[in-house]
Automatic annotation (TrEMBL):
The lineage of its organism: Bacteria, Bacillati, Actinomycetota, Actinomycetes, Kitasatosporales. The chain crosses the membrane at residues 57-80, 310-331, 365-384, 404-430, 451-470, 476-499, 760-786, 813-837, 849-867. Belongs to the ABC-4 integral membrane protein family. This is FtsX-like permease family protein. It is a multi-pass membrane protein. It comes from Streptomyces milbemycinicus. Residues 314-435, 771-873 form the ABC3 transporter permease C-terminal domain. Its main location: membrane. Keywords: Cell membrane, Membrane, Transmembrane, Transmembrane helix.
Length: 886
């Protein structure tokens, strides 16, 4: 040993005496203030002195609270902006009000032991109004003009554009910048890209026709305007209208005119077109103000609602994690002062005074941190908006206002952050304040109630994960998420026992292969199980949280991609962005060398169901196909039934959905299409590859009948075994003029309409919360190491060398990281296994790169929180004396 035990004892006595004198002075001041100014001043004095003395400890709490305020503030701004969101008003900007169909479907059910509740879902296909509504609206007093508008898809030069009647252009208003308005069936006005007098070929509803360009208009380039009668003919629904735009007479208020129009439509018993479900009233809607943009951008309202639900879920997760992280950080900041608090209790400080002092300390730190986070929340939200825009995650036309009066909203979350901090301080200070003075001077082992509570939470988490296996869809995801959070909290309570068990496993290798530093590390970790347990909690949290969030989506995507590759059997895809001509699939089947051809269209359906008694409406993607030769082009892997019977009035159902609906060939399933029309469909087949092809396969004609603006047409083609593929590609192009023939088409995988939005928000949330929990790991470990400085100095006085202590700290950090990663992986695997079995019938999948990133981040953060804070105790030949030894 480089220093004698006598010198060590002398140094310890000197330091103990110094600390005792400081505490004695503080106690005397306490007694003086008690007699002079009362208990409130005692609390204030203790808080102010402790805040100055423990600045480094409170710095970690400050960082955690500032990040809490930033995350909550940014998500509140996103929620508020989305709540104010609306569809952009373009096409009907000059109309005072718009009459349109009811773009919402409803499902009412009575939950167990509760009053009836109604679920609502937006419809993304056009809901039309009867043509007779136009005459009713025109007769309303105060209406200067009522203009019918039908919007349909037009193919022009291989791309999709929008077709309308020229009369409806005044609702924008779009005006001619050259030429004249169309006067006959063969004339059009274009938005740009063609000269006056030019002949253009346009494809509408699969039929090609030539038109003469007679004018050029303002507004979007991807628009073609027809003469009114021709537009009605091309729209294909002469008895219905898409929208009626209303222009008021001078001096008539919008609100007054809206009431008149509403009353006239009700008196005439005008309802939206289509047979709706019982209880789903389909009144014609009269929109004013920002509501006029909804009939143009049909996907905006459903996307806004989904975004609100997603952001609310993320914000709730942030609050829960913030409570756990802030509580852990505050507890650790106070734990290193346990002896000081005990001495204050011994000299007369009451529990109420200590709780008040701790509350004041945390309150001061929390107020500054919360304000800083609130200010930073504005640029953080701006970054989220920029990310959504850059990735194209928002649907066209959705406006998210951010008015200046909304900027102070993070101040509300700053107040919530302060409340979280005060609650954490109350919880952390309650135990130390209630202990008797003699007990407060020594660290006691965690009690049996804590162990029982932790085991109960682990049991509840496992039970919730088991529930996820029996559920599907959103219910399975929610059960798995609840299981992960519950088990993490249980591990936080069981931290000391987890640490003890880990050291029984890791202690022997540390002692045998770690040398003196390893023996010191094993002894320290075994003796300070409570401290090691506190260090494990944030590591388990960051590992389990990121693994569950990343692996859940990755598992479904990976399984879906595998099914999509297995399902795709086609050799060619024939496409046309402006729509394929009528009879294209029949012409393709007649081409020599074609074994099978399938026309595939995309659409949506809405499924009304109950989940734990609550009414739910799920908007699901669906495929419409022609059944002839389907297994040779797009094989859904038939379980039972026959796909050849797929025609209007029938449906094929995915295996998991069939199980939840108790559907089988011959039974019926009730679906609502994208335009709200409800229909009972007979099940003709059940198939396996629903993650790739969706839960429902419908007849192409059935789905197109309820699709207002079909997407790009696509015919999948499989070549005969002996066909010359190059010659076949040329023959296919000749058979369908204007179409593109692509060899080896990409696998088809249906995705929800808001898939990109969900992915971007989820990745942003996981990144933000992951970074937050990493900061929590760093803060907690730094606090623990700072509190160990006297211990490290004592070890140095007792003769331990700096290299030995550095090795000890490295091995302790490695053992902590390894234990936290292992326990976090186990905690994550339980709900993930339940989720993946319920949703994908497979084991959880996490991309190797993401797994390596999690391990690397935990390892680096653990080392950064353990080694740098210990430098002060390892400097010099003696603790705190002179330069470092060579």
């Amino acid at each position: 040993m480089s220093v004698s035990w006598r010198a060590a004892r002398a140094g310890l006595r000197s330091r103990a005496a110094t600390k005792e004198r400081a505490v004695t002075r503080e106690a005397r001041a306490l007694e003086r203030v008690k007699t002079e100014r009362g208990r409130a001043h005692v609390t204030k004095l203790l808080a102010s002195r402790a805040a100055r003395t423990h600045r480094k400890a409170w710095a970690a709490v400050f960082a955690a609270l500032a990040l809490t305020s930033l995350l909550l503030g940014s998500f509140v701004l996103a929620l508020a902006s989305t709540g104010l969101g609306h569809a952009r008003v373009e096409r009907y900007a000059a109309a005072d009000l718009v009459v349109t169909g009811d773009q919402e479907t409803r499902f009412t059910a009575k939950p167990w032991g509760s009053d009836p509740q109604t679920a609502r879902a937006g419809l993304t296909e056009r809901v039309r109004v009867p043509a007779g509504a136009l005459g009713v609206v025109r007769k309303v007093p105060g209406v200067r003009a009522a203009v019918a508008d039908d919007v349909f898809q037009v193919g022009r030069a291989g791309r999709a554009v929008t077709g309308r009647a020229w009369d409806a252009a005044r609702l924008a208003p779009y005006e001619l910048r050259d030429g004249r308005a169309p006067r006959g069936a063969g004339e059009v006005v274009v938005g740009g890209g063609a000269g006056i007098g030019e002949r253009v070929t346009l494809r509408v509803a699969g039929a090609d026709a030539a038109y003469t360009v007679v004018g050029a208009a303002d507004g979007p380039d991807a628009a073609v305007y027809f003469e009114a009668a021709e537009a009605r003919r091309l729209a294909g629904h002469p008895d219905t209208l898409d929208v009626i735009g209303v222009i008021a007479e001078s001096g008539v208020g919008t609100g007054e005119l809206s009431s008149r129009v509403r009353h006239a439509l009700d008196a005439a018993e005008i309802h939206s077109v289509g047979r709706r479900a019982d209880g789903d009233s389909a009144e014609v809607q009269v929109e004013t103000g920002d509501g006029r943009g909804g009939p143009e951008f049909l996907a905006a309202a459903p996307a806004r609602k989904g975004m609100l639900e997603l952001l609310a879920s993320v914000a709730a997760t942030v609050v829960l994690i913030a409570l756990l992280v802030v509580s852990s950080t505050v507890v650790q900041a106070l734990r290193q002062r346990a002896h000081e608090i005990g001495l204050l209790r011994a000299v007369g400080a009451t529990p109420r005074q200590l709780r008040g002092a701790v509350g004041r300390e945390v309150g001061r730190v929390a107020a500054r941190a919360a304000l800083l986070g609130a200010v930073a929340a504005i640029p953080a939200y701006a970054g989220l908006r920029g990310l959504l825009g850059a990735r194209g995650a928002l649907p066209p036309g959705l406006e998210l206002p951010f008015p200046p009066w909304l900027w102070p909203a993070p101040l509300v979350t700053a107040g919530i952050t302060v409340l979280i901090a005060r609650a954490a301080a109350w919880i952390a200070g309650a135990r130390a304040a209630k202990l008797r003075p003699a007990e407060a001077l020594r660290e006691s082992a965690p009690g049996t109630p804590r162990r029982v509570a932790g085991l109960v939470l682990l049991g509840l988490g496992t039970s919730s994960a088991g529930t996820a296996v029996l559920q599907s869809g959103q219910a399975a995801a929610m059960a798995a998420g609840a299981a992960a959070v519950t088990m993490v909290i249980g591990c936080a309570l069981l931290g000391p026992w987890i640490a003890t068990g880990a050291m029984r496993i890791l202690g022997a290798p540390l002692r045998r292969f770690g040398g003196p530093g390893g023996r010191l590390a094993a002894a320290n970790c075994t003796a300070a199980a409570t401290r090691l347990g506190a260090a494990l909690t944030p590591i388990i949290l960051v590992t389990a949280f990121t693994a569950v969030q990343l692996s859940g989506g990755a598992t479904l995507t990976h399984a879906g991609q595998g099914q999509a590759r297995e399902a795709m059997r086609a050799d060619f895809a024939v496409r046309a962005d402006g729509g394929l001509p009528s009879g294209a699939v029949e012409r393709i089947r007649d081409v020599p060398g074609v074994r099978a051809a399938t026309d595939v269209v995309r659409g949506t359906v809405v499924l009304a169901r109950r989940e734990t008694g609550e009414p739910r409406l799920d908007r699901l993607p669906a495929l419409g196909v022609t059944p002839e030769g389907l297994p040779h082009t797009l094989d859904p892997k038939l379980r039972n039934g026959t796909l050849s019977a797929l025609r209007p009035g029938t449906v094929a159902v995915g295996g998991d959905r069939a199980r939840s609906l108790d559907a089988r060939p011959g039974s019926t399933v009730t679906l609502r299409f994208g335009d709200g029309v409800e229909k009972k469909l007979r099940v003709v087949a059940v198939y396996e590859r629903s993650l790739a092809l969706g839960d429902f396969l419908l007849s192409r004609d059935e789905l197109l009948a309820h699709t207002s603006m079909p997407g790009p047409g696509q015919v999948l083609v499989t070549a005969a075994p002996d066909a010359d593929r190059m010659a076949l590609a040329e023959a296919l192009a000749a058979a369908v003029p204007g179409a593109r023939v692509a060899p080896d088409p990409a696998p088809i995988q249906v995705e929800p309409e808001d898939q990109e939005l969900v992915e971007v928000v989820t990745v942003a949330a996981v990144s933000a919360i992951g970074a937050y929990t990493v900061i929590a790991v760093l803060s907690t470990l730094s606090l623990i190491t700072i509190g160990r400085r006297p211990e490290l100095r004592l070890l140095r006085l007792a003769g331990a060398g700096r290299r030995q202590l550095r090795r000890m700290l490295r091995l302790e950090a490695g053992a902590t990281a390894l234990t936290g990663l292992a326990v976090g992986a186990v905690v994550a695997s339980v709900p993930l296994l339940a989720f993946s079995v319920a949703m994908a019938r497979t084991v959880p999948y996490l991309p190797p790169v993401q797994a390596l990133v999690i391990v690397a981040v935990v390892a680096v953060t653990t080392a950064a929180g353990t080694l740098p804070p210990a430098r002060a105790a390892l400097r010099g030949r003696y603790p705190g004396a002179g330069p470092a030894e060579g």
